[in-house]
Amino acid sequence: MAAGKVVVLDPGHNGGNGAHPAEINRPVPAGRGQTKPCNTTGTATNAGYPEHAFTFDVAQRVGKALADKGIRVVYTRQDDTGVGPCVDRRATIGNEANADAVVSIHADGSEAAGANGFHVAYSSPPLNAAQGAPSTRLAQTLRDTMRTSGFSAANYIGTNGLSARADLAGLNLSTRPAALVECGNMRNATEAARMTSADGRQQFASAIAAAIEAYLAS
């Protein structure tokens, strides 16, 4: 049963980041001896619909679906007007919550011709036990459920919808099962239309929520 489990949802970026460059450009620990900027502004559709708004909306929809099943949901940010939190702090929130799963929600901004589709990133090589089999299984469950929900895997990054990464702070610093979903490419007209519509965002959210439920139940 998934009821009673804890899920941390991490909507990428934040609406106030762009107005605070010094704060978000500050270097923070990113794992594996690296540092990274505290946060970034994220991308946007060609028409200007921002990634931070998309991720926040989808995360709220995912969280409602999970909470309705008795799952305790913790968000890394409470609104879409603030700054940050920094990528290392986002990881800490998942760790401190003792999360059964941590899912970061993003959208990509590739300018490559024809680039489209989702992909799911996970930490590799793993730095702890949670980043091993549990995180890989979470990533695979997200990938499989996105596919069965009608989303196609990215044609420009990763392999079969999965992307092993060593450079993402939120994944490197996690001591809980964690994965990051790039829902699609905001620069692709078809995907941008889906992301900009409430119905489309609900489709993304329903798939992600179903994947998290399936992972928790397995």
UniProtKB/TrEMBL annotation:
Extent of the signal sequence: none
A Pfam family annotated for this UniProt entry: Amidase_3
Alphabetical UniProt keywords: Hydrolase
Domain MurNAc-LAA: 91-213
GO molecular function: N-acetylmuramoyl-L-alanine amidase activity
Top-level lineage group: Bacteria
Chain residue ranges for the region called Disordered: 10-35
Database matches in InterPro entries: MurNAc-LAA_cat (IPR002508), N-acetylmuramoyl_amidase_3 (IPR050695)
GO biological process: peptidoglycan catabolic process
Example of a GO cellular component annotation carried by this entry: outer membrane-bounded periplasmic space
Protein name: N-acetylmuramoyl-L-alanine amidase
Native organism: Amycolatopsis mediterranei (strain S699)
Organism phylogeny: Bacteria, Bacillati, Actinomycetota, Actinomycetes, Pseudonocardiales
